[in-house]
Design brief:
Elements (H helix, E strand, L loop, with lengths): L1 H10 L4 H24 L43
């Protein structure tokens, strides 16, 4: 299949940017999906040892990918200890 695609690209050079951008988009989507599965506190992979991972977050821990005008190191504790 790969040889067939490479033969097609040799004749149709206008398809090369299409394959590059679609491949980059698929790669970025897969990377973000893996980040959500591994870093998001809403996902629990081990329910016996960590049934509620969202309760183990520190008040100054950043779990969002991108935040605007927010410095997590300067936040004050605003919730009780359990």
């Amino acid at each position: 299949i790969l040889v067939c695609c490479l033969d097609t690209l040799c004749f149709a050079h206008q398809l090369i940017p299409l394959f590059i951008f679609i491949g980059g988009g698929v790669t970025m989507s897969f990377t973000y999906l893996c980040r959500l599965a591994l870093k998001n506190p809403d996902v629990s992979w081990d329910r016996k040892n960590n049934p509620e991972p969202w309760n183990k977050l520190e008040y100054n821990q950043q779990y969002k990918l991108f935040t605007v005008n927010m410095d997590y190191s300067k936040l004050k504790k605003d919730r009780p200890d359990f």
